[in-house]
């Protein structure tokens, strides 16, 4: 999957970019129709230690999926955002499956008439 990473107001190092790509690639296991992804890394100016924000937008057929997490490290925020997207992808697949089953049962009912 092609991922575009933008770090806002700082430069992300290669290790962080590789980590994000590796985590995002795992999402292909759950849904094979992912077109691409956009990742935004932001540093929030607060006194709180959890000032690192990761936002991930997945482009898939139909609607896009989005997750935003704020943690002490970008790695932790990325892990949580990817997990949130995995759950969203599972829900999307289940919805598509139930829709396909409904269509199949409708076509079988039409054949019996």
From TrEMBL:
InterPro entries: RHF-like (IPR036567), RHF/RaiA (IPR003489). It comes from the Bacteria. This is Putative sigma-54 modulation protein. It comes from Daejeonella rubra.
